[in-house]
Amino acid sequence: MSPKAPCAPSDLRSCRDAVTLSRFSPTVAGDTSEDSGENIPQKSLTVPGGEASSIKNVKHKSRGEQRGRRRVKANDRERSRMHNLNSALDALRSILPALPEDAKLTKIETLRFAHNYIWALTETLRMADQHGHTAGYLPVGSDPSSPTSVSSAEWDSASPAESAYVTSADFDPRHCYKILSRDQSSVIPVTFYLKSFCGENYVKNTWH
DNA sequence: TAGGCCATCTGGTCCT
DNA sequence: AGGACCAGATGGCCTA
């Protein structure tokens, strides 16, 4: 589920970077014909000795160097931009309900989980408002801000139909709400949803 | 070995 | 002109 990253952030210049950057080292960039668009025909560069051609060669080389430098800078910016994006994603993971250490969500899972989690929290507030007594809706002594406040025993008694409605492969918190609103269960809907999404391991590993 | 996930590079486009 | 953003391509790592 969570393949290890081949290049840690601290190894930015390792792996394929080393190869790619060398492609744009001044000597290489100027000597190749990879600079599409800005290329001077290769023929004018291959005339040996002539002064004019050597000037052209220098010009071409410096343009190639400039282009190479721009490309390297752009690569650096892009890399750090993606690292920022990943940091934001990690921050998002960190505020989502705890998962077992070895169950790090992928990027797409994180986004979907966050989306549904927000939806579930919103729905929780809406239903609480509708009932007009939040305290009676939540388990006694529970901390509404923490999804870990419900015991696994409560789960077992409160969610007989979960597997019939929600699987980890095809989860949708709205299904949970349909079940809960039908029998007015006292279990926090969000946690019901989390269990449905994460499975028994979530309960076993984090709720004790 | 195929497929999923990821990091990185790259060229194009838009914006300042 | 240069930076930010984006999407496609590529190749490595990991797991079933």
UniProtKB/TrEMBL annotation:
Record keywords, A-Z: Developmental protein, Differentiation, DNA-binding, Neurogenesis, Nucleus, Transcription, Transcription regulation
Annotated BHLH domain residues: 69-121
Entry GO CC: nucleus
Top-rank taxon: Eukaryota
Region: Disordered, residue numbers: 23-79
Composition bias type Basic and acidic residues, residue spans: 63-79
GO process annotations (BP): axon development; positive regulation of transcription by RNA polymerase II; sensory organ development
UniProt GO MF annotations: DNA-binding transcription factor activity, RNA polymerase II-specific; E-box binding; protein dimerization activity
SUPFAM superfamilies recorded: HLH, helix-loop-helix DNA-binding domain
Subunit structure: Efficient DNA binding requires dimerization with another bHLH protein.
Protein name: Neurogenin-3
Source organism: Cottoperca gobio (Frogmouth)
Origin organism lineage: Eukaryota, Metazoa, Chordata, Craniata, Vertebrata
